[in-house]
Amino acid sequence: MEHLCDLAVAWSWEYDAAFVEVLGRACGERGLSVLDITPATLPAALAAIGDDELGFRVLLDRAGDADVAFRSLGDWGRHHGARIVNDLPIAERAWDKATMHLEFISAGIHTPHTLLLAPFAVEPDLPAPDLTPLGSRFLIKPAHGGGGTGVRLNLSTWEEIQRIRRRHPEDKYLAQEWVTAALTHHGPAWFRVIYALGEVLPFWWGVASHVYSPLTAAQEATHGLGNLRDTVRTIAAVCGLDIFSTEIARRHDDGELVSVDYVNDPIDLRPQSGAIDGVPDTAIDTLAARIADLVAETAAAGRPS
Questions:
Q1: pTM for this entry
Q2: Which one of 71, 184, 190, 240 is most buried, by most CB atoms within 10 A?
Q3: Which H, E and C letters describe the chain, residue by residue?
């Protein structure tokens, strides 16, 4: 092979540019080479890889979930022993909220009261279950999809559920209680936590605004959040992803930490300095550093040869 780069970064969303730049600097500081692969450069990269002229030690693919053309990069990486961050087969399992719900429960992670509903195409005449455990108002969401896609709030009847199931007839649905978070002087005890290759980065989360705010170590202690990080590490062990975010709330009536949005991947990595609802820049820097450290470790191990 003529050229084996240390890290290949595949991306197609224009708003990833800032993160890719930060990641490039972090790798450069460690003397690591980075190959940028975008829709414009993908054909040439795939041709060079196919001709055994080009390869990579680590792959970060932020495009393959939306564009199947990029998935050949992961195929090459798996075949040649490269390290793939959030490898697609693992990610696809984590994207299934119904699967994660059951596995979270098995792992002892608290979740909202939930009814798992078969796809409408499989069971169009599903008998009405007892909705009482969900409370007077609840939400429903498809098992697949992110960013709030398909989520409907403030429901109260089985007829509403049936109507919504028809919108994505091939997908399973989750009907869930709406969790009301305990109130603190900072606001609702609702948290968005980023997991980055072993590093746990917790933040206060604005449910309506989608704005991250710093959660300090002192606040963690004051509000008795010592098991928040442990919960996220358990989620990481369950889903198997290297990088993800999750939402956890402290329920107002019993003080329990409840996983309210299981696994978010890929993460929206717009920096907060450029978008108010973006990820805090400190977290962007940490995530880039963790990936660069992984690349350095992989290169030092000579993988792949």
A1: 0.94
A2: 190
A3: CCEEEEEEEECCCHHHHHHHHHHHHHHHHCCCCEEEECCCCHHHHHHHHHCCCEEEEEEEECCCCCCHHHHHHHHHHHHHCCEEECCHHHHHHHHCHHHHHHHHHHCCCCCCCEEEECCCCCCCCCCCCCCHHHCCCEEEEECCCCCCCCCEEEECCHHHHHHHHCCCCCCCEEEEECCCECEECCEECEEEEEEECCEEEEEEECCCCCCEEECCHHHHHHCCCCCHHHHHHHHHHHHCCCEEEEEEEEECCCCCEEEEEEEECCCCCCECCCCCCCECHHHHHHHHHHHHHHHHHHHHCCCCC
